[in-house]
Amino acid sequence: HDHAGRPLQAFGITQDITEQRHALDALRESRALYAGLLDTSPDAILVVRDGCVAFVNPACVRLFKADSEIPLIGRPAIGLFHADDQEVVRTWLQRLELAEAVRGLEQRIVTAEAGVVTVEVVAAPFHDREGRAFHVVLRDVTERVRMHEALAEE
Fold first, then answer.
1. 102: three-class secondary structure by DSSP
2. For residues 60 and 9, what is the distance between their CA atoms, to the nearest angstrom?
3. Model pTM?
4. Cα separations in angstroms, 16 against 21, 22, 26, 45, 95
5. Which of 75, 81, 94, 135 is 20 to 30 A away from residue 103, measured at CA?
């Protein structure tokens, strides 16, 4: 400082954060793309965490004929499936716990209207900041199953 108390020098540290800004922008783009894929997917997609449904996309709400995601979120995942299929579902949930993906299984779900829909299941484990969870994709194959059954009867 000079005799009037004004600063004569200033010291500081600067850091180039260009790379961090680019990484943050890329992360935002990736999240937007992921959200867009989830919202527009024709397949039902849900996230299972600690055995319960933590997320559902709009197609999942439609598949279960629910009014919104509210009746699905928080439900035990196994309870979404037909009682006769729950033992098999329990087995593939255990496989997911062991970090094994599950592909191409046909199971039956029970809709909000107590209807039964046959779905093909694809599921894979993942980790995020909240811990371990599973992506589960359900595709309605009811018509395909009916066609196979009709052909078998001929």
1. strand
2. 63
3. 0.78
4. 10, 12, 18, 40, 46
5. 75
